[in-house]
Amino acid sequence: MTQGLVLFDRIRDRVADVLASCPSLATLDRLYVVRDLLGRVRICVSDSMETDESRAQVLQDLARRMHEALGAHGYPADDTIVFLDSAMLQSLDDAARELLPGVFWVDRLVTGRDWWSVGGAYRKTDADRYTLFSVKGGVGRSTSAVMLAWRLARNGERVLVVDLDLESPGLSSVMLDSGSQPEFGIADWFVEDLVDQGSSLVERMTAVPSWAHDLEGDVHVAPTHGREPGEYLAKLGRVHMDTGDPWAQRLERLLSQLEERCDPSIVLLESRSGLHDIAATTVTDLDAQVLLFAVDSDSHWTDYRILFRHWQTHALARAIRERLSIVSALTPELDTERYLRQFQERAWDLFREHLYDDVAPSDEAGDAFSFDALEEDAPHAPMVIHWTRGLAAGASLRDPERTPAGQAYAQFFARFDGLIAANRAEKSSRDRD
Fold it and tell me: Of 74, 352, 386, 393, which residue is most buried, by most CB within 10 angstroms?
């Protein structure tokens, strides 16, 4: 029988131990271990095994072991094995991650998304994408999106800004005058896409800020909602529904349609903040470089450590780490040098412990993904945005030229220019190969 209380955090280890101790596991075909919304575990297998007496016996033994090992997070032995036809089994593949050879883990979540994959397989367009993300709100991501769009367009880039912080809309009101709001927004597209008419809205989903008309490049803004929000809360309750396509694929389809219309060279994606799985897609699945906004506080480092440890534990670190850059947001005016020194030390600890390759001090780094603590262009070296009284006082972001951008964003802009150059060089190298 189960020994003691089995808690949620121990489920995967218990399942792996049971499977490793099963002497006849190799006789079974592909297995799916499904943890449902309640955190209880079942085994899903092909219905062809149901009539195979020898394999049915192995499954019965496995079900008994699971029941005994998982306590309240298991099902009765007679209810642990679920036989599915091939189509139903294949429907699990998008969310499946290999736990052991031939055994795949599936987590059922309320929203259908998670932090368990790093991809970009659905991508069809070629614009450079940058996601602005933070584990906490209030760190200036919206302001940074505006300033970055202005600076890039001033330098001749074609910029598309997409507000994906649907639960906290506001970027469009910061960037656009009330009379220039587009007719529709992101939420409208998602609800209309449920009935196959999202593409008919794309021509009326973007607008150009008044300050962008005289710039060398251009800026288009896709807001969360149109000039009339309408039943926004009712729409929001339907935005994140999975249909026959995974939500990441639906979002990619939307971005592709917007990119095909606006033909941007750079796309700025403002993500929802926090560790909720709704934010995961904008960070992991859109083939974007990710700017991780943070301040030097224990709560920020703790939350990022949770996320980084998750990537490390589930063998995702190598797939995500080259996309990441840390941003020192709201860098204080006083004692700045000491603040940034401590910020970089803590960021280095975070990356070194969870994402960087372990290289002994006496060894050459070679091709290892590893950086010295003080290396200026490393992912952990902060892209610095200074807090200034002008920005804090609410200087109008509908006229970026008149904001204190030079003082606040000079170091950030310089690092971002380098990031663009490096990413484009890498892309050019891949294309040649």
Answer: 74
Backbone phi and psi for residue 35, each to the nearest 5 degrees, phi listed first:
-95, 115
Spatial separation of the C-alpha atoms in residues 221 and 186, rounded to whole Å: 11
Over residues 352-380, mean pLDDT: 83
pLDDT for res 1: 45
Q: Is residue 395 packed enough to be buried (19+ CB in 10 Å), middle (13-18) or exposed (0-12)? A: middle
pLDDT tens-place string over residues 83-105: 998 888 888 887 788 888 889 99
| Distance separating alpha carbons of residues 142 and 270, to the nearest angstrom | 7
- CA 199 vs CA 194, 205, 239, 255: distances in Å: 11, 10, 15, 11
The per-residue b/e assignment along 87-99, b for 16 or more CB within 10 angstroms, e otherwise, is: eebeebeebbeeb
Q: What pLDDT band is residue 9 in, cutting at 50, 70 and 90?
A: confident
| 382-412 pLDDT tens trace | 999 998 776 654 445 556 666 666 678 999 9
Residues contacting 101, CB < 8 A, separation 6+: none
**DSSP symbols for 76-108:** -GGGTEEEE-HHHHHTTGGGEEEEETTEEEEE-
Q: Would you state the structure tokens that stand for residue 219, as one six-digit string? A: 């800026």
Output the DSSP codes for 289-302. Answer: EEEEEE-SSHHHHH
Q: Where are the alpha helices (DSSP H) in 314-335?
A: 317-320
Domains with residue ranges and CATH for the chain: 8-107 (no CATH), 128-357+366-432 (3.40.50.300)
SS3 19: helix
Terminal Cα-to-Cα distance of the chain (whole angstroms): 57
Q: How far is residue 127's CA from residue 274's CA, in Å, rounded to a whole number?
A: 26
Q: Please say whether the beta carbons of 282 and 131 come within 8 A.
A: yes
Nearest to 260 by CA among 117, 127, 414: 127
Instruction: Please tell me whether residue 383 adopts helix, strand or coil conformation.
Output: strand
In the Cβ-directed half-sphere of 308, how many Cα atoms lie within 13 Å? 23
Average pLDDT over residues 228-240: 88
Spatial separation of the C-alpha atoms in residues 318 and 1, rounded to whole Å: 39
